[in-house]
Amino acid sequence: MARKRRNSNNIWTQIFNQNSLKVLLGVVATGSFVIAFGQEKISQWTSLVPSSGNSACLTQFYRETPPYLLKNSLQKDSYPLCFNDFNVMYSGVSKTPLWVAEALTPARLSQRIPREDNFHEEPRVKAEHRATLLDYRGSGYDRGHMAPNADMTNLAAQFDSFSLANMVPQSPKYNQQVWRELEEATRAVVTKQKQDVYVITGPSFNAKRLKTIGQGVIVPTAVYKAVYMPKTGAIGAYYAPNNDSLQVQVVSVCYLEEQLGINLFPQLSEEQKRNTYKLPLTANAVKANTPIAYSHWDAESQCAEDVSAEQLQALQTEFKRSGSSPASGASIDADTQDAIVKQLIEALLQYILQLLKS
Amino acid sequence: MFKPFQNGTESHAIHDLTLENDLDCINVYGNLQISKDQAGLQAAKALQAFLNEVVATLEQTPNLPEKLDRPEAGEIENPFL
C-alpha cells in the first residue's frame, strides 16, 4: 500500500518535474504578456473616452502656453482645435493649420502603433473654411502631416492626425524624404537622449503671390519645425522650402517668428530664442551621450513681441473649451472593436503556441 | 490592404514603408528591411501582393494615358501680408 502510494507520488512528481518549468514559464510569460499587451490596448481604449475637463489639451504646450498669432490677417477665420496628442491653430483663410503643437516625451514615444488610417475632412471647421479631400486630389501635392502619425500613442490620436486640419499641401519628394527624416531626427532626440521636446510645426506663406490647389487651399512656400528642449536649453528651428530642392536650413526661433508673425514660445525670453543649436538632420546624427551642439546667436532677427498674460489666458481658455475631437470617439466602431479583440486573442494564441514549441 | 486608386484616402504601412492611396496616384515611401527569415518573407509577400494588384489595376484601366494631366495650380495674392 505504502509502496503503491509512493509510486503514484513518483509519477506525479515526474510529470511535474518534466513540465513544471514549461508550465511555470508559460504562466509567467502569458501573464506578463497579457499585462504588457493588454495595457497598451487598454490605454488605447481609455484614451478614446473623451476627457471632460480638457485641461489635458494644454499639456501639449511648453508651460501650457500656446503660440500666439500676432497679425490680424492670421487671426481671421482661425480655429483653435484640441486633438488627442496635439493641438492645431487652423486658418480658414489658407485652409491649412498655421501651427501644430506637440509635446514629445520618452514615455510617449515608447508606444508605437502601425500606420493604418484614412485621411478625412475636419467636421469642426465650417464648410466654407474646410479643406476637402477633393482639394488635394490630382493636385500633385501630398497631404502632408504636420504632427506626424508616428508621434501618436493611440488609435484616437492616430485618427486625429489624419484630419486635413493637420495637413498642408507638401511637395511629394520633400514630404517623403526631407521632412520624414527631420521628424525621425526629432523623435531620436527624445528617445536616444531621453529628453522632452516641445515641437511647433507649420507652413510659411512667404511670397507676394501664392499657389492654391482645389477650392483655395494655399500651398506654403516653406514648412518649419521649431523645437525647444527644456532639459538642455537647446533650441532652434528647421526651415525648408516646399519644393523638390531638398534643402533644409537651421535657423533661430526669432528668425522664424519674424517670418511668420507668430510668437511660437511665449514663455521663452528673447535671449533664449536667439540661441541657435545645431539641430540634427537625421536620426543617425543623434547620439545618446553627445548633447546637441551650440551653433550661433542670432543678433539680427526681430523676435516676436511679448504677449500679455490676459491675451494668453484667453487663448488657453479657447483651447480648453475647444475640447478634443468629437470624431475620435466615433472612430471606434463595432468592426474596429472586433478587430482589436481578434488581434489580441490571435497574438496571445501565437505567443502561447510558440512557448509550447520551444 | 486597400484597393489601389479606389477610395483614395487610405494609408497603410509594411513596417516603416508607407503606402498611401489616392485616386490619381499611390505613394510608396520610407524604409523596408527584408530580412532573410519568416518575418522578411511575410513583408516581401505583402509588398509583392500589393504591387501585383497595382499593376493589374493599371493594366485593366481603359485608355491609360501616357502621362497624367495635372491641372495648373491656381494663384492668389498673399492674404497674410
Written overview of the protein:
In chain A, 39% of the residues lie in helices and 21% in strands. The longest helix of chain A has 45 residues, at 2-46. A seven-stranded antiparallel beta sheet of chain A has the order 2-3-4-8-11-12-13, sandwiched between helices. In chain A, strands 1-14 form a two-stranded antiparallel sheet. The model of chain A is unreliable at 1-6, 33-53 and 326-336 (pLDDT under 50). Chain A is α+β, with helices and mostly antiparallel strands. Chain A is globular. With 81 residues, chain B is α+β, with helices and mostly antiparallel strands. Chain B has a domain at 9-58. Chain B is built from one helix and four strands. Chain B has one helix at residues 38-60; strands at 10-14, 17-21, 26-30, 74-77. The longest helix of chain B has 23 residues, at 38-60. Chain A binds chain B through residues 71, 73-74, 93-94, 114-120, 133, 136-140, 142, 149, 162, 172, 176-177, 180, 205, 207-213, 216, 218-219, 261, and chain B through 7-13, 18, 20, 22-24, 27, 29-30, 70-71, 73-81. Strand 5 of chain A pairs antiparallel with strand 1 of chain B.
Fill in the keyword field for this structure.
heterodimer, A: 358 residues, alpha+beta, two-stranded antiparallel sheet, 11 helices, 16 strands, 39% helix, B: 81 residues, three-stranded antiparallel beta sheet, flat
Uncertain regions spanning at least 5 consecutive residues of chain A: 1-6, 33-53, 326-336
Query: Secondary-structure element sequence of chain A?
Result: HEHEEEHEHEHEHEEEEEEHEHEEHHH
Q: Helical region count of chain B?
A: 1
Mean pLDDT value of chain A: 85
- Helical fraction of chain A: 25-40%
Number of strands of chain A: 16
Largest interface: A-B, 37 and 26 residues
**Mind summarizing the main beta sheet of chain B?**
3 strands, antiparallel
Biggest sheet details of chain A:
7 strands, antiparallel
Gross morphology of chain A is globular
